[in-house]
Structure formats: structure tokens, C-alpha cells
């Protein structure tokens, strides 16, 4: 009988990350310095990023070597298995073949570790002592804490307040790995204090937490900022996911008809699909689908404009699909998807019709997650469940298709939201269209 | 460079379970029917167990075939990796080589799934509609819920009250897989009511929860009882762990000097070490160490006597190391190790000097767990952390030894206890010697 898992051995961990930029049929619009209104220079980024990551951010090389020290750490959990969801297929009585790349086997339980260790590594090499970051659901915060612990860097995490309370145990993980966790908005930063003065009960958002982390990192010479998504170099590091998946599908004798992943900032989606783009551009044989929450629908309801990456307007201006940097999404449990924008790279792929996007509502997402957990045994993170939902819908069409999705993280630390769902307490959020309309009025003029 | 994991492919999942009984240099003392005071008959067990499991319980065959339906479910997560703890070795600056068999990769996060699916399978085959069981930390309860969900059996779990509150999220898992969870002692059973009338604040124990589950199962023709440890057939199913480990060590060119596992009822320890016993009896080259909590030290401080497996004296009498069936252990966080006795099979190995045992205190165990989590990235369950503690102590002796321990489960659902440890709230318990002395006075006379 056929296997349930397609496994690779450690020698098959990629030796290089793949940089898609060179293979794109268009130029990426450059980030803009909001002060000069001119394209961003490397020097603009020096106060918060190490040079090696800035080089990667703007690199035009198609392949960038993975340092051996990093491959050795990858070997703690990589290559990750590509699983055939045989029991789910049976449950759905589908002719489709469903595969999922299981990134939940990383020590921190999600794909975020793939870039966290890389960012900690380069910062350490360039003499940085401390990293400051934000986190939504806590997947990124725990991953960076893990990475800082490995490289003996100290770490401070601004955690979106709604998640800080919804997901206390990702906080515990960060503490085990020695990081300091602060609910955002906080009194520790100017922008935090400003937001709290306007709304003392503000539940926070990724945009606000980014502002606090960037503000703090910019002020401290020995500290840098670390971002878990959105930027080119983050997506670059995550391409180990898609590169392994390609090998594994080949091994299984499969060609994907659908690639599905959830999208917040875009690193999980990008890391999974970018290695397939070059071939896709030739024959357009794959449907590549980004899944986002209806409560924060940047790709499906946002505008493709230059905007700030954060709420306090401290970041460069990047061209992306955005709901406006002032948009604060409802407190859905998929905290990792509560971002007002989306990676410029992914946004450009969407704008150019190379990928598709779709949005789902909270209750249908959790329903799909429970179906998956009952069939496959593994509990998806609420973010991951967005991909699960669409994969199941595609399979229900019952065509002989190969559906592959990225299982970005497990939900062992999100069980309180499953409790709420099972007890009927969880609610759907309507499209926050008025809030979006309002915040889109505040897009920066260029 | 050498690998971090020794992996097997799915064809290498064992085709048979190993039954050690035949290879032992002694006869196992038979279980006794407390009523007749005569050796237990198969019929005595029929009210609560299916015939096929009873046959396995008393089997003298060395090898018992694993049904294909079971192997197919094993393939969802087996073979599990044998990991080389290279980063921990480095941290400890040890000459020893440390390996751990990672059973935490099962859908339920522990080794318990290995027998849960087997017990559900045979009960289903024999027309049973419902399984009733107990659980301590919730590892077993979630595993059986998972298994019942796979075989469409309904499932009721009596969960030790202290864990029910300490570990709410194992409960969530059980709910996701469709089981009903009841804090024990409860008002649902005679023995539960009796205990609550004596002590309304009773925090419960495995012994009490077993009583409630057995009482309920015995009363319902279509329901059976399911036990997660202690009995021969449970240890039998768990031997897939040790059988795979042997193959993997061979692949790595290693011969173990130490085998270490935590012990509560004994299924995790037994499943890991039993496949090594036959060779061990020949050359006595391996030190086999069972680790238990000082708060519940059956092997190190108990007596080798006939005793009841439960508090309400509903079970047969089995000869085992026991603290007395009335002993209620302090509320340590390693809920899965809070059992007054120990598997008769493991007890006999201890009595005959074939294995050694050692006990550890809660704080040193958590300290070791955090060290491990920082080095290897994986968070051990508090039960598992007992094995981690001893493996680290052995490695600190800095001899060129091969130390192999069983990583029975992850601690993603035990993070509240890590919080308490890190914040200094967690306390040590002294040996409860007076309570033990008292409860040992109540051993049944034969």
C-alpha cells in the first residue's frame, strides 16, 4: 500500500534559498522613503537591519547560499514531511488527492522558525546583542525567542494584546526560551502611549506592534528589529518549504493542480508557492490560491497602493494590497492573519494575475479545522485552518485533481479558540467594509 | 556531518508486537480474583474487556501479529524518529552520545496512541459501542478519544480532578475528537459519590478514576473499559517503540549503555525497554533505568505485594510494587505518573533485579526540562521530563556512553506548569512517607 508520508533525508535540505524576483515578468515597485519620497536606500534600513539581510532584501540573484550553521539548525526538524491526507480523502469521498506540507513539526510548531534562526544568525554575526519584534498569535514571537536562545541574543516581543490574552501559552514558550513579552499597545513606546491615550482599551494589531518594535529598535544601537513576514528576505528564507515540497511531489510522481496557503503578511504563502512560480509562468497549469480571513481581506478587498507597513507610519512606504495602515481588524483567533497589508512581492503577483485570492469567515474555517483534526488527527492553527478550509472545498468538487496545501502550524496552543467554537461562543465577523473605507481614506499621498 | 535523526520508512513499522513473558527467567505471579482468591479466569475479565485483548493479556506467544488496519493507522505518525540530542550534548559538554525516541510526534502528542487505536479496534470488532476510561494528565484520555473517533465508538473519560483543572487543553483535544470528559471523583458512580462524601474536595487520583470507569463499564453490556497502562496487553502494543528503537540504533551503529524512561503505570517504560530484555538477560550489558516522581515512588519506596489496581477495590488483585491502593499522591504536574502501583510485568523485572529504578523531585525535573527545551527546542511533558532529568545526569558523568531515553510526549499542553516553574510558584513535595506507611497497612490479605 502507498505511503502516508513523503520524506526526504537531511542531505536533501536545500543548500540555497530561491529568489523569485529575477524570474518575474515585471519589476517590483521600489520601497519609498516617506521623508524624501525617493526610493529607499540601503542606508535607510541600517538603523534596524543587519547589512547581510539588507543585501538579501534587494538581491537580484536567483539563488542565495544557505550558511552551513543554518542548515545544521534546520536539520533539527527539516526536511519536513509532505503528508498524503488519505483519511481526509476517504472522509470526503473525493477523487482528489490531497497533500499537505507539514511545517508544524518545527520546535516552535510553525514555519516561522525557518526565517527566525536566519535573522538571529546574521544579526549575531554583525555584533547585535538584542532583537526586538512584534507578534500576533505568537507563532513569530516564539520562533524568534527560540532563535535568539540558540544564538544567545536577548529578545523582546511586543505581542498584540488580544492574542496576549487569547493565547497565553505561546507567551509561556517565549519565556521558556528566555524572551521578554509585552502586550501591545504598551506604555513602553511613544506610539504605544499615543494609541493608548486615544483608546485605553485598544486590543492592538500587528500594525501597532510593529510600530512599537521598530521605534524601540531604532533607538538602540545594539538592538535590531526583526520582522516575521512581508519583506523579501523573509519570504526568501521560507522558500525552503516550497523547494522541499517540489522534490517531494516529484518523488510521489505528482504534479500539483492546486497550491493553497493562508496569507497574512505573506511569508508562509510565499515560502510555499514561490519555488513553483517560474514553471507556472511558462504553462499556467497550476491554480495558486491565497486564503485570507474575511475580517482582514487585504488581497480581496484592499487597494494596491503605496502604504506604511505599520500604524504609526515609522516604516518605509511599500506598494502592496492594503486596507490602510490605520485599519484595526476584528479580534479573530487567527491572530497571525490580522495584518492590514500584504507582502509587496505577493501583492504584485496578485496584481499581475499570477495568483488568486479568496477570503473565508471564522466559523467555516473552524468547522473545516475540526473535520481535518478528526480525519488526520492533527489540530491546525487557526491561521492554517484557512488553507484547510479551501483545500476541503476544492476536494469536495470531487475532480481527479492534486491539491497541495501548506500546513503552516499546529493548534496545540490555540485550543481555547476550539473550545469557544465547539461551545458555540465563537462568532463570525461581517466584512468590516466601513472601517476599511474609512482607513483607505488615510493612504499617504505620493 | 552526521544526521540529527535516524528515520525509518513506513515499511519498517513492526509487523508484530513482542511479548516478553516467554523469555523471562521467572513465571509472572497470576492475577487473583479477590472474591474467590483463586487465579483470575478469562471469564472474570469478559464484562469489561473484549476477548481478543484478554487473549493477548494471557498469551505465551513471543510474537503477536499487528492487524493491517492497525499498521495503516500507525503509518499516520510511525515510524517515529530517533533523535540524536547533539545540541544538548554540546551544552552539557559531554563525551556521552544522547539519543531520544520521539513519541511526541503522534497526533495526540504521546506514545499513548500506540495502544489506544488497538484497543478501540478490537472492541469495535467485537460489537462494543462505547469505551469508558480514566485519564491522569490527559495523555491517555486524548489518545483514546482520538482512537474512538477513528473507529466511530463513543467515549467517556473520567479525568483526575487535579489534572482536569491544571490541564484544560487535553480536555479540549478530547472534545475535538468527540469524547465526553468528567472530572473524577464524580457524582456519576457509586465509588465517586462515596469518596466525595468522605472528602468533598478530593483532587482525585488515577486509582479513583479507574474505579469510576470500571464500575460504569461493568454495568453496561455495550460498553467496555479501556486501560492506558499497567496490563500486559497494553505494554505489548507499546513494544512498537522499542522494536523501532532497536532498528534505529543498529542503523546508527550504536549499542545502548543506558535505557531510560519514566514510569507511572509502566506502558511507556515497558514499550521502550521490553524488546531489549532478552539480549540484556544474556549479557547484562545495558543499565535499564525506570524514573518515577518522589511524590509517588512505587518502585523505589513501595512493597512488592498483591494489591488492587484501583482505590475502590473493583479490579483483580495483581502482584506489583505498590504504595497501597488507598494512597493518593500529591498533586504534582506529572499527572500521568500519579499511580499507586506499577505494571506487574515491570514490577517483576524490578523485583528480579533486571531493571533499576530511581525517583526525582518536581523542581529538578522541571529544571532539566527547561535545559532540554532550550537545547533541543522541544518541550517535554512533565512525565517525560523525568527521563530527561536522569539522561542529563548520566551525560554529566561525561563518560563515553550511549544514553537512550524515551521522549514519551511533548509539553505543549502543559505550559501552565512551566509558567509556575519559571515564576517560582512550583514546589517540591517531600516523600509522602507517612501517607505511604498508612496506606500500606491496608494491603489486602490473601
Task: Give a brief outline of the structure.
By secondary structure, the first copy, chain A, is α/β, with parallel strands linked by helices. The first copy, chain A, has 18 helices and 15 strands. The first copy, chain A, has 2 domains: 5-11 and 78-109 and 239-440, Rossmann fold (3-Layer(aba) Sandwich), CATH 3.40.50.1100; 13-65 and 112-225, Rossmann fold.
- Oligomer type: homodimer
Give the count of structural domains of chain A: 2
Based on the coordinates given, report the CATH architecture of the largest domain in chain A: 3-Layer(aba) Sandwich
Which consecutive residue ranges of chain A, at least 5 long each, have pLDDT under 50?
Answer: none
Secondary structure category of chain A:
alpha/beta
Helicity of chain A, as a percent range:
40-55%
What sort of overall outline of chain A do the alpha carbons produce when their principal axes are compared? globular
Helical run tally of chain A: 18
Terminal Cα span of chain A: 61 Å
- Assign the CATH class of the largest domain in chain A: Alpha Beta
Under CATH, the topology of the largest domain in chain A can be stated as Rossmann fold
Number of strands of chain A: 15
Biggest interface, and residues per chain?
Answer: A-B, 43 and 42 residues
Describe the main β-sheet of chain A briefly. 7 strands, mixed
Question: What is the overall pLDDT average of chain A?
Answer: 96
Q: Widest sheet of chain A: strand order?
A: 1-4-5-15-10-11-14
Radius of gyration of chain A: 20 Å
Percent strand of chain A equals 15-25%
